[in-house]
Amino acid sequence: MKTRIITAAVGLCILALVMVFFDTLLFEAVVALIALIAVHEIYDAFSLGEKTKHIFYGFIPYTLLLMSFGTPASIFLIPGTFLFAVYLVACVLWQNQSLSVSKLGGMVLFSAYMLTCFFSIVFIKHQMGNVYEAMYLILLILCFAWGGDSAAYFAGRFFGKRKLAPVVSPHKTVEGAIGGVLGSGVLGVICTQCAVLITQSMGALEQCRLLSYMTQFPVQSYLIIFVVGMCCSVLGILGDLFASAVKRQCQLKDYGTIFPGHGGIMDRFDSVTLIAPLAAILVWFVTEFLVKVS
User: Fold this and answer.
1) Cα radius of gyration rounded to whole Å, the chain
2) What residue intervals traverse the membrane (predicted)?
3) CA distances from 230 to 32, 141, 147, 224 (A)
4) From CA 163, how far away is CA 171, in angstroms rounded?
5) What is the rounded distance in angstroms from the CA atom of residue 174 to the CA atom of residue 186?
6) CB 75: neighbour CB atoms within 10 A?
């Protein structure tokens, strides 16, 4: 537990440092780097081998292009996606006797699933009109996912008795899941209150329509955040179990070792994979339809 706590503390410090540069391209560069590490972990998990390493190398320019959303380079995203698909087809034809199509298919599908998660974070940053609210939403997503994970870990450790999914993830318990769901709701409320206080102290609250609304209707707003947090925690659990199911089929304990006590990037972001895209869809819907209608 000591190792997990130290690693989590260091990770939070790094996250805080990255958020300092949120309004620069360094943020997208860090997200792209994290995404590429995740793709590399997936590549290793499916045991494609050194002879097909060029497949992973093909993901590098495509991931950089994907995370360039909001910059002039993003106009090449659709043709770039087509060219990358052609590249994968060519790889299959070129190494038809040695490349496992089933492993490649699993690796590409799982990688696309993860890249959608990281792209959603970049999308939210550029879709929101206010940098403070964009930061708040991204931190809220991580709070729902990682806060729920931590709450589930401690609840399961102290109260866990009944197994949640013994075949896929033998250490997860029903009591831990309940603790995680409730913990996500509570931590979401705390994160929101901190965001309101920080923007108020900076004199930027009036610029933040969402946070300003919450100060006008605090009871209703925090109740909504609590409920949304619980729903997102359920999605986090599903994402976690999905990644665990793939991991078990690949006969792995962890996807990587970059985080001592926690595993790899995949092991840390599996609970974010369904929450971030849902948040991106809601942000897109609100900014593209409700705001324009009003």
Assistant:
1) 20
2) 12-39, 59-92, 104-124, 136-156, 177-199, 219-243, 272-291
3) 29, 12, 11, 10
4) 7
5) 19
6) 10
pTM of the model: 0.91
Residue tagged 């409920």 (tokens): 227
Which token pair is 286?
């609100």
Over residues 195-251, the pLDDT tens digits come to 999 998 888 888 888 888 888 888 898 999 999 999 999 999 999 999 999 988 988
Joined tokens for residue 103: 């492993």
Q: DSSP state, 52?
A: G
Residue 226 and residue 146: Cα distance in Å, rounded?
15
CA distance 18 to 27: 6
- Residue 99 Cα distances to 10, 222, 247, angstroms: 39, 52, 21
Residue 136 phi/psi, 5-degree rounding, is -60, -45
Greater model confidence, 11 or 111: 111
Cα 125 from Cα 133, distance rounded (Å): 9
Give the largest CA-CA distance in the chain.
Answer: 65
77: which residues sit within 8 A by CB, 6+ positions away?
A: 65, 66, 68, 69
Residues of the chain with pLDDT > 90, as a percent, come to 53
| Pick from 51, 56, 36: nearest CA to 108 | 56
Residue type for 172, please?
K
* Chain centroid, CA 47 distance in Å: 24
Confirm if 77 and 122 have CB atoms less than 8 A apart.
no
d(CA 238, CA 270): 9
Contacting residues for 116 by C-beta, under 8 A, at least 6 apart: 273, 277
Cα-flanking dihedrals φ and ψ of residue 255, to 5°? -75, -25
Tell me the two tokens of residue 217: 């209707």
Q: How many helices (H) and strands (E) does the chain have?
A: 13, 2
- In the block, tokens 């991580």 appear at 142
